[in-house]
Amino acid sequence: MKPVLVSVLALTLPLTACSVVGERSDDSGQPAGAGGGTVVLVTHESFTLPKQVVRQFEEESGYDLETRAAGDAGTLTTKLVLTRDNPTGDVAFGVDNTFASRAVDEGVFAEHGVDLPAGAEDYTLEGEAADVLAPVDNGNVCVNIDKTWFEREDLAPPETLADLADGEYEGLFVTPSALSSSPGLAFLLATIAAYGEDWPGYWQELVDNDTLVLDGWEDAYFGEFTQGSEKGTRPIVLSYDSSPAFTIADDGTSTTSALLDTCFQQVEYAGVLEGAENPEGARALIEFLLSETVQRELPTSMFVFPVRDGVALPPAWAKHAEQPESPYRLDPAEIAANRDAWLEQWRDIVTR
Amino acid sequence: MIRHPGRRLSRLAALSLLPVAALGVFFVLPVLGMLAQGFWPEGEFDPGGVLEVLARPRVHRVLWFTVWSAAAGTAISVLLGLPAAHVLYRLHLPFRRGVRAALLVPFVLPTVVVGVAFRQLLGTSGPLGFLALDQTAVAIVAGLVFFNVAVVIRVVGTAWESLDPRPAQAAATLGASPWQVFRSVTLPALRPAIVSAASVVFLFCATAFGIVLTLGGVRYATVETEIYLLTTTVFDLQGAAALSVLQLAVVVALLAITQRLRAVPDPTVERPRPTAHRPTRADLPSVLVTLLLLVFVATPVLTLAAGSLRADGAWSLDNYRALGTSGEQQALLVPVSDALVTSLRTAVDATWISLTMGLLVAMIVTRRSLTRAERRLRGALDGFFMLPLGVSAVTLGFGFLITLDQPPLDLRDSPLLVPIAQALVALPLVVRTIVPVLAGVDDRQRQAAASLGATPLRALLTVDLPAVWKPLLAAGGFAFAVSLGEFGATSFLARDEHPTLPVVIYQLLGHPGELNYGMALAGSVVLAGATAVVVLAVDRLRVPSVGAF
């Protein structure tokens, strides 16, 4: 019997040595930062900042930054609302204009009191929301086309939303679902902003024109778009205004372009959480997010545009990522009031 | 031998204390917390709102699709898995260990990547495009089988391997045909294992999330995808609570049925001995089915592997070289290689947690009961530990946030939460792998050991351990693979500084750029390779002194 015990021990000891439990004891025992303690940022999974930028914040402000990133913007908003009586952090980043109303109405945020830099006020919300949510970045969801495909087929590429329903482009468009994908929802909102009450009719035309609706942006872009995959068959896809900066050919031109008359603007906000343990630190972080250091990092780290004026863009972006002059917009309160009904109606049309 | 019923029950209580407490804190409490959000909207008890949701025609459609697609997925997995279990666990064939380990690979593949691979086969321009299966229920069921057939093969195969071969040999000697032997001797002995495997597969299928969304598009919804939608996009917590209750009801009903079907078998487990034989003519059909199954499982995996070797329209290793970096334009905070280390560490924790709890649970539920009440109690405990598989990860994840937030249970930000959540997902698999074998151990052997003066521990090590060693390793491989591939709960709880590999793969898939997609594929291949290697190594572990007993 002894050899059994020995072998069991011999097996488990090295295992525990390489486990998380074994590892964590060293970093969980650390005392809070000497300056002003820890700032806890609650955000979504797309949030990333380079390590040296985070270190700069910690050195300049004296706070330690702890990031808890999980889920998408919808998950984040639900999380913030559910934990509003006992928030999981001090500051939140990543609630966008499609979800803002809900979080604000539920009293998730406190007034931030941060002075916005020049340019940012173009993106503030209306009413009470303006005082609690500070715009940090923006980007547009736009229809993208594969320029090389249209050249090869000798077909004039589409330009507007109406073109997508044109028989010339039958079976060429692929878009993610409005139910499960945030760019998909943004595109539905773009069509609602463009067509008003008549949007169901437009969507019926899209469906009749053999538009393919897939679950996520990944499925659409990497699975079906001719520039996203060698095996893709559809040269029109729903993506972002920044996407053409990622499809640069050897000759320095982009093989794709965004149709600037089909865009819906998305703005992401940061706010101090009501009941935060460290509201001072939360404010310091929001100021830092709006500083030139972070604003300059946004395109490379998070694939979005800065809200601050006069921030230089990376060369590929400056050259290939064009922003629309007047993208479609909808009032966040209107979105909040109608989202469920719109989604239900949309689902009926595309699954009919 | 302990005969006193009071002492027996107190021992039962002592053994079950740890697993029951763990499940209470990390499962019952969070789920109840989320249900309460739906039943008490605005702080007032309003069960009527929940009942109204259940009356919606859409809910009925969703429930019906969930049940039939899961039933179809389970039935096909069992039909294809049985012959494969025979071939891979009872026949002497080259590479069978490698094939067994490789069959667990689909478990860890990110569903988006598999979905894209499936669609490249089924889509209009793919080699199977003429079947017009893209975005159909058939594609969803095929996806469910792809992910779950390994469960049947592993659970049933492990039990088959430990089966005493003599009754079958006796039947054959008495003139029974191979089919008669299978139907009247082998199948009844395997029934507990088959029912075990089928019930786990059904739960996996009924709560499948990513694969339904990716392969079904917008056309199909299951209870699980509907809960996700209601919770995160529509914020209809009443509706989500109603569907969660519905989910629980279906799961409990299923468990009650399987409990009956599983019924205690005759003691059939022998000390494992090499029972594999060379394939004969009679094995030909099952070998053929196994080959077809392997082709079915391998095709999407190979499509994916081939994709990972493409860069700039040519074959290259660039995607793999890039794994040590942070992706195109720094898409990632940590290189993929770091994430793999985090994944492996987490999986080690999840594995020992689920094995410890699973072994305790298996011992509790398989001991012979002296009274009807005791048997009921053990049966109820058995079902209780299956429940985590039947509840939406979204409900559990949000439940963690709102219930584990006060001392002494202020755990919502603990790094241990990820391995614990993964262990809960793996626990039913572990239990279902061990129980059929442990239940087959003749209790008289333990009694004999005790009457010869062995302490309970000694009896455990001499009687139970040798029989249960192989299933325990098989379960360990399962738990490890489940943990490595788990995305739902992990993405919810993972911390930014230490993301796991699946989380990083999804980060890469979230951004345009050929290199990012290539790296995601390469990362998936690395994840698959790591899983196969670890499972293969675990399967080869032996109790060094079994022969000495």
Q: Which SSEs are present, and which pair or pack?
A:
The complex is a heterodimer of chains A (352) and B (549).
Chain A: H1 2-17, H2 20-28, E1 38-43, H3 51-61, E2 64-69, H4 73-82, E3 91-96, H5 100-105, E4 109-110, H6 129-132, E5 134-146, H7 147-153, H8 161-164, E6 173-176, H9 182-195, H10 199-208, E7 212-214, H11 217-224, E8 236-240, E9 256-258, E10 264-273, H12 279-289, H13 292-302, E11 305-306, H14 315-320, H15 332-350
Parallel strand pairs in A: 1-2, 1-3, 6-7, 6-8
Antiparallel strand pairs in A: 3-10, 4-10, 5-8, 5-9, 5-10, 5-11
Chain B: H1 5-39, H2 47-55, H3 57-90, H4 96-102, H5 105-108, H6 111-122, H7 137-161, H8 166-173, H9 178-206, H10 210-216, H11 223-233, H12 237-262, H13 284-308, E1 310-311, E2 314-315, H14 318-321, H15 336-366, H16 372-384, H17 393-403, H18 417-439, H19 443-451, H20 456-485, H21 488-493, H22 501-509, H23 514-540
Antiparallel strand pairs in B: 1-2
Helix pairs in contact in B: 1-12, 1-15, 1-17, 2-12, 3-7, 3-9, 3-13, 4-23, 6-10, 6-13, 7-9, 7-10, 7-18, 7-20, 8-9, 9-12, 9-18, 11-12, 13-23, 15-16, 15-18, 15-20, 15-22, 18-20, 19-20, 20-23, 22-23
